Give the backbone structure.
Amino acid sequence: MHNSEYKKPVRIVYVGGGSLNWATKLMGDLAHDGTVPATIKLYDIDHAAAGRNAAIGMRYSAASDGAKVGYHAERAEDIRAADALSDQLAQPVGLDKTTTMFRERVDATRHYLPEELTSGVAA
């Protein structure tokens, strides 16, 4: 991502945004790179965990010399209108299980997202 020419802010919904592992890796990458302005909507069934991560993300953004990124804990009904959906899938063994889990996640969030994000995934 370094030296990116990308200037248009992106909106990313992060499903599982309460995770201390995956979410903070994304935050660190965006802060270190500094070229991608973004709004990250953190959604998690543990809303308090997403809120904790939003506060962590804002500290990452404040410490970065680059493009600022905003982090917000969201409820399911507030995650519409994203440019990208980030979902940390569990790492099951076997392609069939991975595919099934991916489809279940898309089905669970399909009605909150623009059709272009879910149109290639069968219901």
Remarks:
- Confidence is low (pLDDT under 50) at residues 89-93.
